[in-house]
Prior knowledge:
Layout (H helix, E strand, L loop, with lengths): L2 H13 L7 H17 L4 E4 L17 E3 L5 H9 L5 E2 L7 H12 L10 H13 L6 H10 L3 E5 L4 H13 L17 H24 L2 E12 L4 E3 L10 E3 L4 E3 L16 E12 L2 E10 L7
Parallel strand pairs: 1-2, 1-4, 2-3, 4-5
Antiparallel strand pairs: 5-8, 5-10, 6-7, 9-10
Helix pairs in contact: 4-5, 4-7, 5-8, 6-8, 7-8
Bound molecules: S-adenosylmethionine.
Amino acid sequence: MGLATLLAREQRAYLGRDRSLWGPHLERTRAFLGEGLASARDGLVILGAGSGLEVPWGLAPPGATGWDADPWSRVRTLVRHRVWAPWEFQDLTGGMAELAATAARAARQPWSGRTRATRTAARRLAGLIRSLDPAAAPLAAWLRRHRPGTVVVANVMGQFGVLAQRSVEKAFGPASPWVADPEDPGGDPLDEAVRGWTARAVEAFLAVLGASGADLWLVHDRGVLFGPAPVALGPLREPWTAQLQAAGELEADDPLCGVDVPRAFPGRELERHQRWLWPVATGQTHVMEALRVRRAMLGQ
Ligand SMILES: C[S@@+](CC[C@H](N)C(=O)[O-])C[C@H]1O[C@@H](n2cnc3c(N)ncnc32)[C@H](O)[C@@H]1O
């Protein structure tokens, strides 16, 4: 199963969720991204455009390009917004196919196609993944060719790690490649390797955006919280976990695997930085982050 199929499946699950608590999140995201769309000049590309649930396409200038590797995203955008936009379906990390191929090679014997012993294969794969270097090459090439003045990143970065995990799991079939016991003294080398890969993918993606010199409008999952305890966000503080005000125990996951997005654009003016909570489902709340990074001044 390739990235397109995995993404189509994820997107179906995403759109099929109970959205009754999503109103305030959708309003904030649409308002923020809408500002980016309405102020865009000299070309616009929307990365992670999806079906346009969060993207008010009506505010985009004519000719704006959508980018999403889900094969149904462009048609869904047409149905939702009556816009048939130019579209790119490539993998934004540029490294998912290599990751999936590496996982498949490690998990199965090439001569018989049979799965290897899971624990051994998972350890071997962890070693191989450490040497992979996702460089967002298709995005870099596209931005060099088209030189858009504005790039909108519509809630896609938090998916890189999820998709990387799914690709690895897929290679192992029904067996789980992860170490089940969190107390295992050896830790989980594969989990660490996939997190390392995700951090490199996010860093490379942000470096490519920074090098484009374009105006940037980014919305992404900064954190994911699990547990029933009510939670609120205090004033903006770093790291994001210092903002959490929870009335009980919560488990916090970092989908960006340690990458600090506001620090990824040295020398560029960070004009806006906001965070808010998105109750995605019972017991699952996302900490969202929105950033507006001013375009590079000439000579930078
Ligand atoms: C959480 S959804 C965002 C939804 C979208 N902003 C909307 O308004 O409908 C993330 C989107 O990113 C896309 N995506 C995830 N990983 C990707 C990748 N590596 N390359 C290209 N698109 C990707 C998914 O297909 C999905 O549509």
